[in-house]
Amino acid sequence: MKTRIILLALALLSLGLGQTLTAQTPKGNIPSQIVGTWAHNDGDDIDYLQFNADGTGFEWEAPRYVTTQFRPLKKPFKYEVQNGRIIFQEADGDIEAESLRIVNKNKIRIDHDTYKRQN
Questions:
Q1: pTM
Q2: Is-contact 103 115, C-beta < 8 A?
Q3: Which of 27, 31, 33, 43 has its C-alpha lying 20 to 30 A from 49's C-alpha?
Q4: Structural Rg of the chain based on CA atoms
């Protein structure tokens, strides 16, 4: 009788553990925490990344001190997040994979660059 209880407990535990692992590592996941516009101060320029919830986005840069006439050239990309990495596919087909760390709701790190939420 004890053996059956132990086996049943182990079966339930492994079932629950499998669901937990699957829930934590979905493939192609787009974390809602990164959706929005982010900025990284890159010296004289500010680099911007805009992540949309559908896996698309834009990147652009602007001089640190912009005039009202400045219009950035926004370059489109597609992205997905897998196992702590963000994979970018640019319009010309180039693919880049970089590390992604969500520091908090207002800060992310992509490789060695820290981006702050703009909206």
A1: 0.72
A2: no
A3: 27
A4: 20
